[in-house]
């Protein structure tokens, strides 16, 4: 080495050594980024599964994510169309399933604390039925549940740090994340370097995923990406931040005196037209630059008369009710009502200016891609907007309240967060980035097919039940208003309101679904798992999987997957394709009580974890051993097991193990639950028959790549549910015993081939010469599915409103048979009357099933009158055929 090189080396060492000394080095088995409810659950689950060294790094001080830091203090949990009477007897829950897993353990503790402090497990008497809590009190419970593992040394907790760069080994087939560098919040200079065998990203914005270079998606998905029926056809004109809005929640509590807040900067009463004192005529004069329908805006009910205790904003998110609480004080969560949401698109002028000062083009970036300084600019304006709403409530509502001491002016911001502005540490984040995973969950996999609205949805299992499902979920695809409209004259320098963009909200609910392990695993990165809201699903599905219990379950599933991966030295990407390893993950989630309250894997409605056969039934169902029908969502464990059902269950069990027979006798006197328990005890330790993987990228060889195949071990389309056996009045087939004097009308399209012994009605208006027809022309309301061989079953005319069909007949008594249904789709709310007699009333027909109904009627005016549909239905009535014959 020359003198010059030596001098250069000494200078370099002088500069670098202090820097290196400032960086703390850590090693661990499992690194978890983010103290959200998902990160917390992953840490506890992994610790219970004996992972020796776990490091949990969070960017704040509080554990619990949306429960605590984000102040979503009314629990949103899985909801379906049916009710589960779980919990307090006087308060029926509109839950899809019984609580299970870590979520149940957490809620049991929260509700026990509430009972001790407030005298009731649900101190808010909430309008919609969720459990409630104070965020600061929940944070203590989160910490208490994790503390034993911190005390034992299994879990190391590091606060106020965030990842800034990653160590990635790119010499392997798949790049592998080896470690992360963390900087203190408020700095970009790392002071912590942590290497880990495996990392879970449970952060708010997928920061570990981003710094490691792992693939991810954000914003709206075009329909061409995942073929989702509700996705927009083209997203090229969508703003970058087309996603579920954030909301800066507020907790307000009763005060002993008036507690008005100062008027926030840029306050404008026109931001809150939903509660504004502007008259309806003046509101209509406000010209917005987007198509905002005033009729779609829910006005404050009786705003000039009601006190807050009578208003929905008071009851829908009440945390503690002063009438029933032991301390007689009311506290309320203000979270989304009356325009509090903060859309992320088309930002206000002052926000754009501030963003552009940080970096040219920053205002056009998606919030996922923004740095912390840029996000904070948006956060500060979201805070200001929420405070504007509170100011509006304290002044406008106070002005109109008959009892001035009972208005929002008598409420103050809670000081429980310890923040200078008395607001929560973070906004409620509904949508983050979406990990590009081994499988991206799609809307059509789990969407309920009953009807266009939740009103008509019926309980059923999902169209696709993933073979690697780890926990049950159900909710509706729920986008809040993603759009922002400004006044035409003032543009983005003036007031705005949020509005629902076409195609960005739907009342469709999901079916009873399972979450696949593949959606936790990156498609192109080893050593990393997703969690919280950084998992593999489309934007539409992300709107349905973001609730309190779901995020806990995602974290628990990630922690179990990580533990099995570490224990057996297998990459997570291999686990979904190796049944033995998959069953080990399921054992970790739904096994013995040593690993906590078992998780509900299969979405049965009537099974609670306390049931003695809960584990056996769940494990057998998830393995595909229990015979199922799409609508039988209750297992009924205490019902007698039929011999036929026992034989079929035993046969399916043998298909999953290497053993050729089972010493399990068929009995007429055994319950379904007990039979499952005996069967599970026989097979749970037997060598399992592995999935057959034909190729690396197409396991079942059906030319659908695994990345796009929801059921990668079932060739062709996803498994279709076995059609329930149709009775004679459900098959749509014309009764061969009809007399030769019968008259048969086939309702079909204009170009359908004529049928022997049928007359064809194509939807034309009534014609005297033809002798039948409609009160109006509905010839365009026809469908042919090309599914069934008999075209009179395969075609139909339909209405979504109310239409009248008449046919010339002789006066007298007639026997009329009406057939409704659809060979290709389920139809709901179908409605038919004949001569004023109701024959079909709100009838639901499954795909490929029909309803045939006979009725005797008396005709006195020479015309038989049939009415289909009703103007208020909003659903299809599908008329296949009618048979008329003189009554004998």
TrEMBL record:
Entry keyword set: 4Fe-4S, Iron, Iron-sulfur, Metal-binding, Oxidoreductase
GO molecular function: 4 iron, 4 sulfur cluster binding; metal ion binding; oxidoreductase activity
Cleavable signal peptide: none
Pfam family, one: FAD_oxidored
Domain of life: Bacteria
Name the record gives this protein: FAD dependent oxidoreductase
Gene source species: Gimesia aquarii
Classification of source organism: Bacteria, Pseudomonadati, Planctomycetota, Planctomycetia, Planctomycetales
């Amino acid at each position: 080495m020359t003198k010059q090189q030596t001098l250069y080396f000494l200078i370099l060492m002088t500069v670098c050594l202090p820097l290196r000394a400032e960086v703390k080095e850590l090693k661990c088995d499992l690194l978890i980024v983010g103290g959200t409810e998902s990160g917390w659950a992953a840490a506890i689950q992994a610790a219970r599964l004996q992972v020796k060294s776990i490091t949990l790094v969070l960017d704040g001080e509080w554990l619990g994510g949306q429960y605590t830091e984000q102040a979503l203090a009314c629990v949103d949990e899985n909801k379906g169309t049916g009710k589960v009477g779980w919990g307090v007897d006087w308060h029926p829950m509109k839950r899809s399933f019984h609580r299970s897993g870590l979520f149940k353990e957490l809620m049991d503790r929260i509700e026990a604390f509430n009972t001790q402090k407030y005298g009731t497990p649900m101190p808010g008497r909430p309008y919609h039925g969720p459990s409630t809590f104070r965020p600061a009190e929940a944070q203590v419970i989160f910490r208490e549940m994790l503390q034993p593992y911190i005390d034992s040394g299994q879990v190391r907790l590091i606060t106020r740090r965030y990842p800034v760069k990653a160590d990635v080994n790119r010499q392997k087939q798949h790049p592998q994340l080896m470690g992360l560098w963390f900087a203190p919040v408020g700095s970009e200079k790392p002071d912590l370097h942590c290497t880990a065998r495996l990392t879970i990203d449970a952060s708010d914005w997928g920061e570990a995923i981003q710094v490691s270079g792992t693939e991810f998606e954000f914003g709206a998905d075009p329909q061409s990406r995942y073929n989702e029926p509700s996705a927009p056809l083209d997203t090229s004109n969508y703003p970058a931040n087309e996603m579920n809005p954030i909301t800066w929640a507020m907790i307000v509590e009763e005060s002993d005196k008036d507690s008005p807040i100062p008027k926030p900067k840029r306050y404008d009463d026109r931001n809150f037209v939903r509660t504004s004192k502007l008259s309806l005529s003046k509101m209509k004069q406000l010209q917005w630059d987007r198509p905002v329908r005033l009729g779609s805006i829910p006005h404050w009910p009786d705003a000039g008369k009601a006190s807050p205790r009578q208003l929905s904003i008071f009851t829908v998110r009440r945390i503690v009710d002063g009438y029933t609480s032991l301390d007689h004080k009311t506290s309320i969560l203000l979270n989304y009502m009356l325009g509090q949401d903060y859309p992320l698109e088309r930002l206000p002028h002052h926000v754009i200016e501030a963003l552009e000062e940080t970096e040219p083009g920053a205002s056009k970036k998606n919030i996922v891609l923004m740095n912390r300084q840029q996000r904070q600019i948006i956060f500060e304006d979201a805070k200001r907007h929420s405070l504007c709403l509170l100011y509006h409530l304290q002044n406008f509502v106070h002005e109109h309240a008959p009892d001035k001491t009972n208005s929002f002016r008598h409420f103050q911001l809670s000081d429980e967060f310890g923040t200078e502005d008395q607001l929560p540490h973070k906004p409620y984040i509904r949508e983050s980035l979406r990990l590009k995973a081994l499988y991206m969950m799609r809307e059509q996999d789990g969407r309920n097919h009953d009807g266009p609205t939740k009103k008509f949805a019926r309980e059923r299992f999902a169209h696709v039940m993933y073979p690697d499902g780890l926990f049950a979920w159900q909710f509706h695809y729920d986008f809040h208003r993603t759009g922002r409209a400004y006044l035409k004259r003032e543009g983005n320098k003036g007031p705005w309101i949020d509005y629902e963009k076409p195609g960005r909200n739907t009342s469709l609910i999901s079916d009873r679904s399972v979450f696949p392990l593949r959606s936790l695993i990156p498609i192109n990165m080893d050593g990393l798992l997703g969690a919280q809201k950084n998992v593999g699903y489309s934007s539409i599905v992300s709107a349905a999987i973001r609730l309190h219990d779901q995020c806990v379950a995602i974290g628990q599933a990630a922690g179990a997957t990580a533990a099995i991966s570490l224990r057996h030295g297998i990459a997570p990407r291999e686990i979904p394709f190796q049944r033995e390893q998959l069953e080990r993950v399921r054992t970790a989630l739904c096994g013995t009580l040593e690993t906590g309250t078992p998780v509900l894997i299969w979405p049965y409605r009537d099974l609670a974890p306390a049931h003695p056969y809960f584990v056996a039934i769940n494990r057998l169902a998830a393995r595909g051993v229990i015979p199922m029908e799409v609508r039988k969502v209750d297992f009924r464990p205490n019902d007698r097991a039929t011999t036929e059902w026992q034989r079929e269950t035993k046969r399916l069990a043998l298909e999953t193990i290497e053993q050729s027979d089972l010493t399990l006798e068929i009995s007429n006197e055994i319950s379904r639950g007990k039979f499952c328990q005996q069967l599970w005890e026989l097979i749970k330790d037997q060598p399992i028959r592995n999935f057959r993987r034909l190729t690396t990228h197409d396991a079942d060889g059906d030319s659908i790549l695994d990345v796009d195949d929801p059921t990668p071990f079932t060739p062709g389309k996803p498994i279709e549910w076995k059609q329930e056996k149709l009775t004679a009045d459900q098959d749509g087939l014309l009764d061969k015993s009809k007399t030769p004097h019968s008259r048969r009308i086939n309702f079909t399209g204009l170009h359908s081939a004529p049928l022997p012994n049928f007359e064809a009605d194509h939807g034309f208006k009534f014609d005297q010469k033809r002798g039948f027809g409609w009160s109006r022309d509905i010839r365009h309301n026809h469908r042919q599915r090309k599914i069934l061989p008999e075209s009179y079953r395969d075609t139909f005319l339909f209405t979504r409103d109310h239409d009248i069909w008449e046919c010339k007949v002789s006066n007298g008594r007639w026997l009329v048979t009406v057939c409704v249904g659809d060979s290709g789709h389920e139809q709901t709310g179908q409605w038919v009357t004949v001569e004023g007699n109701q024959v079909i009333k709100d009838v639901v027909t499954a795909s490929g099933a029909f309803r045939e109904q006979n009725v005797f009627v008396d005709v006195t005016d020479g015309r038989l009158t049939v009415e289909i549909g009703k103007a208020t239905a909003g659903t299809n009535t599908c008329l296949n055929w009618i048979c008329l014959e003189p009554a004998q």
